[in-house]
Amino acid sequence: MTHKAGFVNIIGNPNVGKSTLMNAFVGERLSIITSKAQTTRHRILGIVNGADFQMILSDTPGIIKPAYELQESMMDFVKSAFEDADVLIYMVEIGEKDLKDEAFFTKITQAKIPVFLLLNKIDTSNQEQLEEQLEWWSKKVPNALIFPISALQNFNVKEVFTQIVAYLPESPPFYPKDQLTDKPERFFVNEAIREQILQNYKKEIPYSVEVVTEEFFEDENIIRIRSIIMVERDSQKGILIGHKGSALKRVGVEARKSLEKFFGKQIHIELVVKVNKNWRNNERQLKRFGYLNK
């Protein structure tokens, strides 16, 4: 039996539903999802195995014009998605007609690999708008196979998945067949905490935060976790903790619920807030947090 395996990399503007699609394909909640832009900061791999295929999905940060060093590093993850892709998914949403970076768009239209353009959130449109969008994108990206989908409603997702498998190159598996992702457990702890911060705080707070899990002890029935939440200023620390620690407690409770679902075990989590001034523009700190390889 012939075996297929390949990297399927997902790119697009912020908030087009890339993480929702990734999770739908993998069947697990690997990528955090919020309504805020820049929710995804890293490149996250999700591995889907069939009897005769292995699809390695890659969720990347939304394409933006970088304003500081952290965002530069995030865009480097997007650039790397072009380098090793066997199939490229360019995801757009109904009503969208441009990409934040023209150089990326040129790479898409000139790609030598199969390109799938997924027109997402069609559940928010009508038939007339959908037909107009399909025609517009077919002219804009003539090299792409175009599919209307709703990642949230799971409409047309299985059909697209089947089509992508057909385009994977013949290859043995790249990863063990029981492996779900390339990220360690602590990464998902950090992301679960950051997701709650994105959902519970406004303005600059969520973007000034980085999470580092210092302790992860797993017993048969419980996982004990201690995580540090880094902020850039003392004022942010006060807001994050809240009156008598109430805001931070809420983050801990909701993160614990999410992690108990993910790991299937009881979770005990301790959160500590520390100030790490200007970490988003500090190359040494960005390297420490896994944003820089250089």
The total count of helices amounts to 9
What gap, in angstroms, lies between the N and C termini? 41 Å
- State the CATH class of the largest domain: Alpha Beta
Radius of gyration: 20 Å
Strand order of the largest sheet: 2-3-1-4-5-6
Q: What general form does the structure show?
A: globular
CATH superfamily of the largest domain: P-loop containing nucleotide triphosphate hydrolases
Counting helices, strands and paired strands, the structural category is alpha/beta
Poorly predicted segments: none
Please summarize what this structure is:
With about 290 residues, the chain is α/β, with parallel strands linked by helices.
Describe the structure.
By secondary structure, the chain is an alpha/beta fold. It contains 9 helices and 9 strands. It has helices spanning 18-26, 69-83, 102-109, 127-140, 157-167, 185-200, 234-241, 246-263, 283-288, and strands at residues 4-12, 44-49, 53-59, 87-93, 115-120, 144-148, 210-218, 222-231, 266-275. The longest helix has 18 residues, at 246-263. It is globular and about 55 Å long. The N and C termini lie far apart (41 Å). The relative contact order is 0.14.
SSE topology:
Blueprint: E1 4-12, H1 18-26, E2 44-49, E3 53-59, H2 69-83, E4 87-93, H3 102-109, E5 115-120, H4 127-140, E6 144-148, H5 157-167, H6 185-200, E7 210-218, E8 222-231, H7 234-241, H8 246-263, E9 266-275, H9 283-288
Helix pairs in contact: 6-8
